[in-house]
Amino acid sequence: MKILIIEDEQGLRDNITQFLQKEQYIVEAAADFRSAMEKIALYDYDCILLDVGLPDGNGLNLLRTLKSKQKRDNVIIISAKDSLDDKLEGLDLGADDYLTKPFHLAELNARIKAVLRRKALDGRNVVKLNNMELDFNGRTLSVDGVEIHLNRKEFDILAFFVVNKNRLIYKSALAEHVWGDHMDNADNFDFIYSQIKNLRRKLKDHGANLEIQAIYGVGYKLTV
Amino acid sequence: MKLLNHTLLYLSASLVLILSIWAVVFYFSMMEEVYDSIDDGLENYKMLIIKKANRDSTLLQKSRFDESNYAIRPIDREFALQATEEFKDTSIYMEYEEDYEIVRMLTTYFSTPQAEYYELKIITSMVEGDDLVADLLHALLWLYVAVIASAFIINNWVLRKIWSPFYQLQSELRGFRLGEDKIFQPPQTRVREFQDMNHTVAELLRANIAVFQQQKQFIENASHELQTPLAIAINKLELLLEQSPEKNGQAQLLANAIHYLERMTRLNKSLLLLSKIENRQFSKEELVNFNERLRGQVDDFEELLLYRNIHLKMIENAVLTRRFNGDLADVLITNLLKNAIVHNHEGGRVIITVGNDGFEIANTGKQQPLDSEKMFTRFYRSADQSSSTGLGLAVVKAIAQLYQAEVGYRYEDGLHRLYFRLTHLM
């Protein structure tokens, strides 16, 4: 999988590169509009992370060029502007997702995987892990072929762990992913802990073969 | 006190003084004139009587006033020589008035060619001082009333006319709010002072609006520019967190650092949201069903409610639909619900009541009413909630202002009640 990061802030570019390399992607980066145009013209990417506020041009124009050339690269817009108009315009132009700075790297990872999964050749949108199978279209989980009922948030929690397997997930990255803006209070670790405890019990009861490890005060890690 | 009444007050007070002084001066100068002419008349009379007495000695026998107005009586030579002529006011009984009345009397002395000495007293009726004073006071009172009345009428008319640009300016200013897009229009006038004032006010407002805009721009830019460095710092710490050993507390320290950076991010986002609302950047409106959105959000809070053992009840008395920005409706509901849950206690209650003009979210919590004035101001938070941004209710207030809705707080039946009432119809 090849990923292109178009981002003028070096710090952010480095962070994303470092993080994504661990996911075994081939990561390239462009720091400005001109070099990004060059790379887009020359190569195909599975996913492009596009910062719309580039110093020498609007990232949305890059998106236009890409779509006019009938390229099938997936695009996730990254913007410092939490503006609905930008978001709508980007999605209208054919972007696959939109992420507002600042974001958690685990969240970015989940978004990239979702985009890649949706565009996968078989179109089944399913992730397998040990004896479990997560169907993202039907939002269902089956263990050893037996379907287990999970509510919306339980599925979201599990899916977030699965796509970020073997990585330490910071607690608020999980909270934001599942509960969005509803959960930004500091002392919610106990609450999240209790939610995960429930999920763990449910998975264990159904014989799912995975372990969610809690790291006190920090977050969680799903080890396979 | 109105300007009009002010001038009238000063005018009437000074008129009382001026007219009183004038009345006193007038009275004395008139009395002087009256005495002067009466005394002249008496003097003339005296000469006529003496001349006549010299010719007709029977006159010298007239020792009583009776029907005429003079009396003559002989006196000693010695007395006559040292006596001097004298005018004085005295009273005598008047048949007509049936009372003693004040008269002017000239007492003089003369000698006949036969060297006989006589005292001559001549009287003439006088102006009645007390009556005059009364009349004068009466006239003065009427004059005063007339002057004040006409001053009032003229003042009213003239002032109203002259000051109309001032009143216009006043009403313009009353309707002016910093931060609203309304352009200030100073009233047209030909009066130089008002032109100056209008100009000054317009300049002052322009400068204020500029500063206000700059400040808003600054907050917006600062918050916006902070997002990227914050993002980088948080991500760097996340990368570091992955590499840190979990056992020796290093990961906890890093998590803590991230926690504070996230708090800063939330603050930033809220500030940005506030300035966006104030800049009316949420122009897109749709028909929002508040009941549906409330139900949806209650669902999102479900686990937290369960975890904190808070019982939530939703009473839908009506279906509330309005044209509203969808995102702002969500922010509004989230902030109010979050507020009701965060400031609640274990095993508490939250009651949402939806009516056809708004909704109310009531919650249990501290057993005392909160400061309803301060709770909607920025960065106000209760002492036990140090991790909240203190901007949640400020955002609610800003949304309310944008939609000319009413948002308020009351403490009733042991519940903290926050209500949001949409006054305008869809």
Question: What does it look like?
Answer:
The complex is a heterodimer of chains A (224) and B (426). Chain A is built from 8 helices and 14 strands. By secondary structure, chain A is an alpha/beta fold. A 5-stranded parallel beta sheet of chain A has the order 2-1-3-6-7, sandwiched between helices. Chain A has a 4-stranded antiparallel beta sheet with strand order 8-9-10-11, with helices on one face. In chain A, strands 12-14-13 form a 3-stranded antiparallel beta sheet. The radius of gyration of chain A is 18 Å and the shape is globular. By secondary structure, chain B is of the alpha+beta class. In chain B, 54% of the residues lie in helices and 18% in strands. Chain B has 9 helices and 11 strands. Chain B has helices at residues 3-55, 77-82, 129-174, 192-243, 250-278, 290-300, 302-307, 326-342, 392-402, and strands spanning 70-74, 86-94, 99-111, 117-125, 286-289, 311-316, 321-324, 349-354, 358-363, 405-412, 415-422. In chain B, strands 6-8-9-11-10 form a 5-stranded mixed beta sheet, covered by helices on one side. In chain B, strands 1-4-3-2 form a 4-stranded antiparallel beta sheet, covered by helices on one side. Chain B has a two-stranded antiparallel sheet with strand order 5-7. The interface between A and B is large, with 44 and 46 residues.
